[in-house]
Amino acid sequence: MEGVSDASLPPLPSSDRPDAAARLRDALLGASFTADGLLELLGAPAYAALARSETVPALRATRGDTPLEALVRLFLLQQPVPYARVADVLPVDVCLESGWLTRAGADAFTATVDVRPYGGPGGEDWFIVSDLGCAVGGAGGIGSGDEGVVLGVGGASTTLAGITVRTPVASALDLGTGSGIQALHAARHATRVTATDVNPRALHITALTLALSGAPAAELREGSLFTPVRDDETYDLIVSNPPFVISPGARLTYRDGGMGGDDLCRTIVQEAGNV
């Protein structure tokens, strides 16, 4: 997925550099850039405000010079961070080459994607990747109105993850994967995970989410609903957090289903029994 791009959205980090994702992950964990680490640094009010896309409390809480504060400003608040502070905590050359960072002037860097620590159900330190400005908190945090923008984790995503039955299975299908949170959860208990989406940018970001979280890679396929599923395939578990706006026209891929009434959900339910 090296070449996945959109002229109106910034280029994404390479998903063909597992070495870069692994080194970045090690650096993030080494600086306690985790859900627990953020809660300790920011405090409960500022941490909760981030989930509402309110950044001022976090900006106030990160005026120091620790590595963790630099990472919060870089990946969560999308602020330029001086070279010296970034170089103290991240493998700068690798992050630049693989596209996780970009230069902001002569002596500063900015992140190319939003990276959010996410605590897994077994205490795992995971990271959810999304487009800049598309953080936890849903539509209020979107910084781009482009059709292909990829959202982070919202309440519907975490609710679905929480109610999904987690018995071990041979195969799981994540229908409309988005930023990859359901595929990430499924990777804990499914031998094989397939993730689909009509948006190639979402598939690219799912690959980044899985790699940065240290999870096994999923089989990523582009297409609508069950179209990418082959005739000879069956799945033990199907999860889907489909577009939630009922509209015959699609303005934002993650949100507008392009069907009227209950047609989208009806199609998913009716066709699920065939795979």
Automatic annotation (TrEMBL):
Q: Which GO terms describe its molecular function?
A: N-methyltransferase activity; nucleic acid binding; protein methyltransferase activity; S-adenosylmethionine-dependent methyltransferase activity
Q: Which residues cross the membrane?
A: none
Q: Is Methyltransferase a UniProt keyword of this protein? A: yes
Q: Which residues form a coiled coil?
A: none
Which part of the chain is the DUF7059 domain?
Answer: 31-109
Which stretches make up the Methyltransferase small domain?
170-245
| Keyword field | Methyltransferase, S-adenosyl-L-methionine, Transferase
Biological processes per GO annotation: methylation
Q: Which GO terms describe its cellular component?
A: eRF1 methyltransferase complex
PROSITE patterns assigned to the protein according to its UniProt record, in alphabetical order: N6_MTASE
Q: Which family does it belong to?
A: Belongs to the eukaryotic/archaeal PrmC-related family.
* PANTHER family reported for this sequence: METHYLTRANSFERASE N6AMT1
Q: What is this protein called?
A: Methyltransferase
